[in-house]
Task: structure prediction
Amino acid sequence: MTTDAEGLRELMDSGALSGGLGQSMGIEITEASAERVVGRMPVEGNRQPFGLLHGGASCVLAESLGSIGSTIHAQGFGRVAVGIEINATHHRSATDGHVTGVATPVHLGRTLATWDITITDDRGRKVCTSRLTCMLRDAPQ
Result:
């Protein structure tokens, strides 16, 4: 699949990918299109008290990736995406390095977009699977 460089550039230029929670957690987007979004995040700085990657950090990565893909999709017809539901299953812990998330669409409609997100560690082991649904709303004027 090809990266929608124009869509990613528009998001970056708008400031949608800078600042905020994603930046403070160290999320880096490496590929983005309406068909696939890939990003990574360091475990360091995103751990819970026992030294493991915080489950909430995995959810932030998952929602960030799915929301970016939904936003690129929604731009095609003058809409914006807002997350309305997320779930996550944590399969194993990560204690160092980075985790990488890959988001792929389950459904891309005019009012809803649903994504499956798989998060793996540096060794390719599945850390978390998540599903995100975004509502697509008319863009504010």
